[in-house]
Amino acid sequence: MARRPRTAKKLAQRIELSYFQRPQPLRRWRFILSVAFPALALLWLAVAGLSKNRTPYSMGAVSPPHALFGQKCSACHVADTVSFRHPVTDQACLTCHDGPIHHADQKFTPSCSSCHVEHQGRIRLTAVRDSSCTQCHANLTTRAGAPHFVRSIVSFARHPEFAPLRANFADPGTIKFNHSAHLVTSLIGPGGRRVQLACNDCHRPGAPRGSWPYGQPGVQDVTFSGGSRYSPDAVLVFGAAHSTTAAQKRLEFAYMAPPTYANTCFSCHALQFDARFADSVPHDKPEIVHAFLVKKFQDYIAAHPDAVREPSAVPRLPGQPVAQNVHAVTRDAWVAEQVAAAEDLLWRKTCSECHTLDLSGGNSLPAIAPSRITTRWLPHANFSHDAHRMVTCVSCHSSVASSQLTSDVNLPSVRVCQECHAARASGAPAGCFECHTYHDWSQEKVYPGKFSLPDLLKSSRNFAARPPVAEFIHR
Amino acid sequence: MSVAVVELTIDGHKVSVPEGTTVFDAARLNGVRIPTLCHQQNETPVGVCRVCVVDVGGRVLTASCVRPVESGMVVSTTSEKVRNTRRTLVELLMSDHPSPCARQQQSGDCELEVMARAEGVEKPRFARRATSRGRDDSSVAIAVDHDACILCDRCIRGCDDIRHNDVLGRMGKGYRTGIAFDQNLPMGNSSCVSCGECMISCPTGALTNKFHVGTSLRTGEPASPETLHELPVFAGVSGTFLELNRGAIVMRHFRPGEIICREGEFGSTAFYMLEGRAQVSINTQIGHVKTEGGARGFFSKLSSRLARGAEDHRDEESARRTIPIDGPADLPLERPVAELGPGDLFGEMTCMSFYPRSATVRAVTDVTALEMLRNVLDILQRNKNFRGQIEENYRRRALDSHLRSVPVFSGLTTSFIDHLRDKVDLVRYSPGQLICRQGEPADSFYLVRIGFVKVWQAHPGGEMIFAYLGRGGYFGEIGLLGGGLRTASCTALDHVEVVRIGADEFRLMLEKFPEIRSSLETVAADRQRENRERLAFVESTPLQDFLAQGLMEAQSLLILDLERCTRCDACVRACADAHDGVTRLIREGLRFDKYLVATSCRQCRDPLCMVGCPVGSIRRRNSLEVIIEDWCIGCGLCAKNCPYGNINMHPFPVQIADADSPGRTRAVMKQKATSCDLCTEHAEPSCVYACPHDAAHRVDPRKFFGALLAQSKRD
Amino acid sequence: MIAVAIVLLVATAIYIPYALNSPQGPRGGSAIGLSFGIVGFALMIFAGLLGARKKFPVWRVGRAQTWMRGHLWLGLVSLPIILFHAGFHMRGTLTLVLMILFFIVVASGVFGAALQIYIPRKITVEVPMETIYEQIDHIRSQLREEADQLATAACGSLDGTIAIGSAPGGDASASAVEIGVEVSEEARDQLREFYLRRMRPFVEDPARSRSPLGDSPQASGIFEELRLRLPVELHDTLKDLESICEEERQLTCQARLHRVLHAWLLVHVPLSYALLALAAVHAVMALRF
């Protein structure tokens, strides 16, 4: 055993009693660093504050339209005069642009920033999350009671069927048409040739593209103006080559223009009225047709005065032997007779082939119901055929080949859309905002500009580019 | 063993004394008184004053205090030559003495001046020295007057040899010789601890008491030395001592029915009855705690109540019939009442060893008693008169019941006890003193009267303690019954008094009372069996460590679980915070198992720290907490005595009046003893409270380590 | 601990539906996000108060151990709660810095807690002669004196180059008398040379000196060799010197382990203060905007 005995007393007596009150390196450094680190941190913030750099406090980059105000917090975070908070108020947004209310009967109006979330990086601000919509539409109630629409819509995958396709909805158009008959493989076409009709021989988007294969040559291309966003009726505009607004142009490409006689029916469906004449009556109002007929017959009798004595009131079809019923009339009477006979043919047969004529009125000319061709079946949703131009028509409009009735609605079912537009990773976008808009832009107020360029530029300071890391994170 | 005896003649008388005795002692033993100045009975003689010179027929006179006797020496202590020499010496000393010196003024017993008067020296013929040697008033307790110093060396020997404080020494030479404190520092600035030994040793007024240490008992009127000296028991007690300790012994008067002391209280005084009668009794309910109810089911409760022995007989129930108390009588178990009268001393153990009061004493008639602190009782115990009276008292009153209180001896007849009465010895032992040693021939049987002893054996790792015995315990029978050699050693733990029965009387007792022999043999066999079992554990290291570190003695240990302790010092800081910035706990010590036994008061069962406190300022508040009173003089004895270094002396700056510039104060460092006080004003000790890692615990070591020890017992 | 698990479950149960259903996704600014943020901040402040609690160990405001457990568990649960608050986003410079700091603080805390389980055991096992770290230098000076005393006692004055002070421990003075008589001058010279050339430099600065005495097997080899060369009277001194070397080595080991045990705090504590400061700024700014 070593002769260095260790007893408790000896060990204790080695220790200086005030050792713990002396400064010790570990504790000292702990203290120094505990002061230094917060000081550094606050110094960083102070430096940023002094140079008016708001980056430390920003929660992320702002969307591209607002990038100019990225550093000017007070542009959106309005300073409340009394309280401490600087919230983002709707007023701040409305300073520059309007956001009309969605529906007069809505229960509450969410604030701008509750749907349009900034500081998420360079995103599309209008790309609103579904949950912003479903916060009402998942269980819809209005101030006026129950809604007219489906009560619960939670996602596109469970989107209800389109209204026109629900039960008992009939196409309101008055032009009698049988798609199936026109789409048979060997249809008798102009000049007796056999033709096969394709969809876009008759249905094309509004702006002029190429020539119409079955149209009337020489007649100017007809385009249509989509009208306002909410108006379902097309407005036929003759010869309009440019649209006035971008919105108009989008509409023109989005929807198919209603087929016109001049563009699509003319080649096959001639409007002949008498064997003596090869031409057709103009496809126009009955008055004009009547005037045309009168002129035509007058010109004919002037050129052929002997025709007065020909047997009348019997339609003389080409190639048929002449009937023997002959009587003498004056020229005017003859004209009137011929016109009446021609109109009889037209009203009862030729025009009635497609139109619905109402002869019950007292005067001799029929009333023709407006065609009421629907160009936009879903007024509350935006759809663009142009965006889908890579798809064949029949892959969506699959019911057309078998559609025989005019009243058939050949709109594709929502299930067709859901095949591609789904919430999976390889699906086409399926957010609410892709088709629907919240704001009722028909009520949009006009905002005259308020800011001059120096005003805008003053607010934004260009700082050095952020390091790639920050860029990556903030994206 | 026999010592050679020398024969010589002193003043015409033939005397024979053991070889090695000095002439002075030889004379003293034979009634011849030789005056001395530098010799004190309790100090090694140095022979510097030469006042004790005697004529032994040599060329010169010889100093009797240092000269050993020789065979055939003829000593003359009163011859003309001797007397003249003595007178001249005294005269020379008196010539420089500032008569009357301080002591002479205070108590009239300056040894030099008394001797001068006795020798008839009125006015010395010699001139006083020109320059004064100065005074030193820097000490708080003791005034130093170098002019009165006769360079007798008593103070130096007292400080060095008796008290081992090693403060005093001699400095200078020739006329500039003097006593010095440390490196000749002023006494108050030196390492002097104001124990007073030098003051008591000084024969003149060179070192006198300054009455600054206020040891005083609060109630009662201080008894003056004159009053005390009127009592026969105080004859021979130093008047100086009584004067110096004036406040430490007081006279108290009690009316009938008044309670003098209550059982269970802690105190530090003893009472000596002068007049009247008092009743001593134990008033707590006699019964033991019995726990009932079970741990069956979730809601059953454990309840405790007191049960008497008759109702609930326990296996190891002792056959004890009396309750030993700290007084001259033992109380019978059935009705624990006894009576005390004049001449009875009670409270000895409380006073000497700071145990709690063992019984309640209530005055029956008007009672006058002296209440005294430990230092006074200590001196009294040394005084022959006092001791004689107390022992006489004991033999007359208490020996009987005391012997009979030990169940083994309950069958002794009165006649035998009468026979024993004068044959037994009452022997006192100081703390730590060895009573009997293992391996020695057994020659006595011991019965403990007061105090505690430990019975132990020596082992390579340390001591293996077999038992602690208190009043009523006995030992020594195994040696006497067995082969005649002691099987274990026995040491006094505190101030112990034993009744010693010699081997012859013991054997006589066994012959006369065979039933005692058989019960003793049974006890001896039991004890030996237990000892063997205990020895069997000693081989395992943890137990060895446990004992070697003295952990058995501790009632409460502060242990730090080293596997959880992150050495963050939170405990030490908390202790310092709770105690004026000075910690009472040191995170260093020996390890036991995975625990560090921190250096912090262990609340030992036998508080070795309390032994020897000269002013009785260290005591217990309850059974655990050690209190150091305000009047701690910083002598450091308790710190030295504590075997684990748990008491530390702290210097505190204290403002005292500056002697050099009156009206201003000066800071000096005073030492005070401090130790862990268990933070009793809080529910939990601060160190345990502040440990964030649940590593600090205050535990009872036997319970806490019980599992570990039991494990090693099984292994 | 169970309470914390329950809190975590409740918090998760609140968070998941909130995250899925809220219109803009989970954000710090939404009501639930804000409550998470407040709860998380409160937990962080409580965790920070542990430092204050330790400064006033005597105040009876709850046991230090309770505070420590609270600090650990509540601090740990603040991590998911803050993540819920942030909606698992990491945008914004200040908030990114906060999140990084937060992760470092919690990770260092967990690391420190693991250290505090492992290292004390290591110290206990590897350093039987452990003492108080802050006093190691003081103890080393005492060991130096003890070694000097032993050497002087065994081989006489060390050329008077070293002043001998009084050292606690070692009855070296007694041995001078015993040894001086029998040992040859040559042996004493050898010992003196060994002591002065090899051991004293080591004892002067054990941490930095590259003495072979710093390596336990090498040291025992050196001493073994010495025991073969020197007479048996000096073996006790050698044993003591060897024991002193052992103690020096153990103290070096203890110092190293102690620093390992406490170094992580130099990261954890300052960063946590920085975190709290920045978190306060963030709370103010976020509420403001």
Summarize the structure.
The complex is a heterotrimer of chains A (475), B (715) and C (289). Chain B is an alpha+beta fold and 715 residues long. Among the domains of chain B are: 5-78, Roll (Ubiquitin-like (UB roll)), CATH 3.10.20; 90-209, Alpha-Beta Plaits (2-Layer Sandwich); 407-537, Sandwich (Jelly Rolls), CATH 2.60.120; 557-714, no CATH class.
Q: Would you give an account of this structure?
A:
- The complex is a heterotrimer of chains A (475), B (715) and C (289).
- Chain A is built from 14 helices and 6 strands.
- With 475 residues, chain A is mainly alpha-helical.
- In chain A, β1 and β2 form a beta hairpin.
- In chain A, α9 packs across α10.
- The longest helix of chain A is centred in the N-terminal third of the chain and has 26 residues.
- In chain A, 16% of the residues are buried.
- Chain B is α+β, with helices and mostly antiparallel strands and 715 residues long.
- In chain B, the strands form 13 sheets. A 5-stranded antiparallel beta sheet of chain B has the order 11-12-23-14-21.
- Chain B contains 21 helices and 39 strands.
- In chain C, 76% of the residues lie in helices and 0% in strands.
- Chain C is built from 10 helices and no strands.
- Chain C starts with a helix and ends with a helix.
- Chains B and C meet through α17 and α19 of B and α3, α4 and α9 of C.
Q: Which value, in Å, is the CA radius of gyration of chain B?
A: 29 Å
Shape of chain B: globular
| Mean residue pLDDT of chain B | 79
Provide the β-strand percentage band of chain C: under 5%
Uncertain segments of chain B are 288-305, 314-318, 537-541
- Major pleated sheet of chain C: none
Describe the SSE topology.
The complex is a heterotrimer of chains A (475), B (715) and C (289).
Chain A: H1 8-13, H2 25-50, H3 90-94, H4 112-115, H5 130-137, H6 179-182, E1 187-188, E2 194-195, E3 222-225, E4 235-238, H7 246-254, H8 261-265, H9 286-303, H10 331-350, E5 357-358, E6 367-368, H11 393-396, H12 414-420, H13 453-459, H14 468-474
Antiparallel strand pairs in A: 1-2, 3-4, 5-6
Chain B: E1 5-10, E2 13-18, H1 23-29, E3 53-54, E4 62-63, E5 74-75, H2 80-96, H3 102-107, H4 111-119, E6 135-136, E7 142-145, H5 154-162, E8 168-171, E9 178-181, H6 197-201, E10 207-209, E11 221-222, H7 225-230, H8 239-244, E12 249-254, E13 259-261, E14 270-275, E15 278-281, E16 288-292, E17 303-307, E18 322-323, E19 331-332, E20 337-340, E21 345-346, H9 348-353, E22 360-363, E23 367-372, H10 374-382, H11 384-405, H12 414-421, E24 425-429, E25 434-436, E26 444-450, E27 453-459, E28 462-469, E29 474-475, H13 477-481, E30 489-492, E31 496-502, H14 503-512, H15 514-538, H16 541-548, E32 557-561, H17 570-578, E33 591-592, E34 595-597, E35 618-620, E36 626-628, H18 637-641, E37 648-657, E38 665-674, H19 686-690, E39 696-699, H20 701-704, H21 706-714
Parallel strand pairs in B: 1-5
Antiparallel strand pairs in B: 1-2, 3-4, 6-7, 7-10, 8-9, 11-12, 12-23, 13-22, 14-21, 14-23, 15-20, 15-22, 16-17, 18-19, 24-31, 25-30, 26-29, 26-31, 27-28, 27-30, 32-34, 32-39, 33-34, 35-36, 37-38
Chain C: H1 2-21, H2 31-55, H3 64-86, H4 93-126, H5 136-155, H6 172-182, H7 185-204, H8 216-229, H9 235-263, H10 265-288
